[in-house]
Amino acid sequence: MEYGRVVFIIALCNTLVLLLNWESCFLGINRMGQLLGRSSGETEANDVEMVAESTRASPSRKRKTTGDNEMETKKKKISKLDTAKYIHKRLFVDGAKSDITICALGRTWNLHRLYLEQCKFFDSLFRGHWKDSNNAVVQIDVVDPNVTVEGFNMVLESLYHNEIELDLENVASLVASASMLSLDSVIERCAELCAESLTDERVLEFYALAEQYGLLDLFEKCFQYLKNNFWRLSNKPEILHTVSHVTMVKLMAASDLLVVEGELDLYETIKKWIFLQAVPDVVDNNKMRTEMEKYYSSLTDRDRDALCRAFADITCNIRVGHIVSSVKTINDLRKDPLVPNEIIDQVLADNWFLLLCNEEMKEQIEIRDEDFHLNAHRLGRVLDSVPKCWRWSGFNFGVDLLLNYNDGVITLKRNCLSQWTPYSTNLKFEILLHYRLIVGNKHGKFLYDSTVCSRSFRIDQTAIIARFLPTAEEFPIAVHFFYLVTLPSKPALKYWEPYLKKSDSWTNITDIFHLYRGTVMSWFNYVFRTCNVIKISLQKEDAELIFVLHLRNFRTERFVGLLVLKSINHLSNYFFNK
């Protein structure tokens, strides 16, 4: 009997051992399967989901699901783990467990210091020894009119959601709000959106936005767009009249500004722009010429002199030496109030001297790129069909250039004897031509840029100067041609320096205020709107105008502060003839 019990116990123990071994084997196989599944493409996150699901499931073994069922299961599990939406809803929208309240623009936000610290503005506020550093309620005084409730809310919301909805209608408010809070990530994304969306209608808006908030990359892209397309924009009065005085000065001072036809057309554009500043309601091109003639003919001698001085910083960059190339243009220039007769006389004398120098000089002229860009003839032509052959009118020191475009090739001919020319030609056997050729499509994108080149041309010689093949969609194309065949003349700005030094600053600034007091007041309103002006002190003895400014953020302070100081210095020089 005892022997039977012993045998039974031994058999029972063996059975238990076998069962334990079987369980261990099964677990090993299961683990091996998981490893194999991971190596065949499953991610670690999915493994975590699978383990989490198995802890909630019943202990019974289930057969393996099919591929379709597995994908459906994964989608369901992923949708349950949308943490970002949960955080946005509970913390930002509902304000759950808020530890700070932000009050601005007549609205309150129940938020969290931990999230707000992503902004440099709040990070500095919380970490510094400020009055509001430890307050549960922080009042923010918004002085920038571009900051709206919608834009401010969207910037705060981006701290919780890591997303922000951008569109061109609210981009100004977003940039203003993000600049105030020093949230660089939003500012950079807004700048990228603006740069990608540059059009004729929006470029000035984005240019002003970049200028106001110190968006340097966007500022440069907008200015480049303006330089490349100003010849088109100037034909749209509704756009031209919105160009600011400061922007116009910078455009005219750009040596690589692209023009169509020639320097005279650029001068006519300035006349049109000045007229639109005085009479902004005339935006019809059909009426423009007649109304302009009425306006300029109605000016008194005092008004003409004041007008000349008020816009001298713009017209001084016009290369008058390239305009006085025919009797008609000289007479028209003398009738206008924008260029003093003494400057015209000096330019004519210098051109005659330059012509003699080039006639008597035997060696070829080497010119630096800097001198080339400051003195080159700026010409252009719009081509809406092919083939096309053209020349630019006027006496250009006896050099008659003919350009021809056909089948993606532009050729340049130095015409002397083979074809009729309206002026006498220079019959030197060989001349050295310095040039730069740029071809742009109808959107201003460069299709070809030769950069500055130098090439010798003999009498009646023709040479290929460009090869490119635009698509039909890119027409009409614009050909911009810079060239120089003479010694560099005196830079245009030099002619104006002695004239301005002889001016009676106090009398002229009074005239300017009388004529353009609306523009001046708009400028001061902009300064007051951007800043809190606490004190203005004017001291005639040392010609200093002191502004004590309290600005709300560093970006505005850095950019507007420099603008104000430069403008103040300019005005003080006018007032006190320093």
Automatic annotation (TrEMBL):
<dbReference type="Pfam" id="PF07707">
    <property type="entry name" value="BACK"/>
</dbReference>
<feature type="domain" description="BTB">
    <location>
        <begin position="98"/>
        <end position="168"/>
    </location>
</feature>
<protein>
    <submittedName>
        <fullName>BTB domain-containing protein</fullName>
    </submittedName>
</protein>
<dbReference type="InterPro" id="IPR000210">
    <property type="entry name" value="BTB/POZ_dom"/>
</dbReference>
<dbReference type="Pfam" id="PF00651">
    <property type="entry name" value="BTB"/>
</dbReference>
<keyword id="KW-0812">Transmembrane</keyword>
<feature type="transmembrane region" description="Helical">
    <location>
        <begin position="6"/>
        <end position="29"/>
    </location>
</feature>
<dbReference type="InterPro" id="IPR011333">
    <property type="entry name" value="SKP1/BTB/POZ_sf"/>
</dbReference>
<keyword id="KW-0217">Developmental protein</keyword>
<keyword id="KW-0472">Membrane</keyword>
<keyword id="KW-1133">Transmembrane helix</keyword>
<feature type="region of interest" description="Disordered">
    <location>
        <begin position="47"/>
        <end position="70"/>
    </location>
</feature>
<dbReference type="InterPro" id="IPR011705">
    <property type="entry name" value="BACK"/>
</dbReference>
<dbReference type="GO" id="GO:0007281">
    <property type="term" value="P:germ cell development"/>
</dbReference>
<dbReference type="InterPro" id="IPR043380">
    <property type="entry name" value="Gcl-like"/>
</dbReference>
